[in-house]
């Protein structure tokens, strides 16, 4: 990946107007925490040229997407999405790559070397909800309650005065989030909370 703030915390860039309490990579963005749980190691590219296999297809598609939308007078995002889908399929299945001299899909099928692997839930996690979620840590008070954005939640099995992790799975359609409580490798339970009460925009 590149060093965009979504993917990486860089001291001096991500907190320019604040005192620095953490150095580069000492704070893990939400995206990085998901990959850590999937046992995926992240390598950061320091220049576009360092990840040319990603940048070149993007540039090819981006150039043609803009031109095609202009030529066809497309101004609606849904119609532009159809054009994008067509270009991606054309690039992967029909166009001969200028460097390899092969169609990308055929080359991928011929080459047995790949870093792709089947996804599986690794213990102690119980569900994909424990991996693909928002995370935040909170301290349990003397009443076995935690507070998040001025909302108090009771966690009956939580140890007193210890930090537990909240793994939040928001659902935009229902407007309700499932908050799953974890202490170290132990699942403590879950609660349903309105998205508006959690004020998820802060994440």
Question: How does this model look, in words?
Answer:
The protein has 203 residues and is α+β, with helices and mostly antiparallel strands. The chain is 28% helix and 20% strand. It contains five helices and six strands; from the N terminus they run H-H-H-H-E-E-E-E-E-E-H. It has helices at 30-37, 52-71, 77-93, 104-110, 195-198; strands spanning 134-139, 145-148, 151-154, 163-171, 176-183, 186-194. A hairpin with a 4-residue loop joins strand 4 and strand 5 (176-183). The chain starts with 29 loop residues before the first helix and ends in a 5-residue tail after the last helix. The model has no long low-confidence stretch (mean pLDDT 87).
List keywords for this structure.
203 residues; 5 helices; 6 strands; elongated
Quaternary assembly: single chain
H/E element string? Answer: HHHHEEEEEEH
Radius of gyration: 22 Å
E-strand count:
6
Portion in strands: 15-25%
The average pLDDT is 87
Distance between the termini: 21 Å
Number of helices: 5
Shape: elongated
Please outline the helices and strands.
Elements (H helix, E strand, L loop, with lengths): L29 H8 L14 H20 L5 H17 L10 H7 L23 E6 L5 E4 L2 E4 L8 E9 L4 E8 L2 E9 H4 L5
Antiparallel strand pairs: 1-4, 2-3, 4-5, 5-6
Helix pairs in contact: 2-3
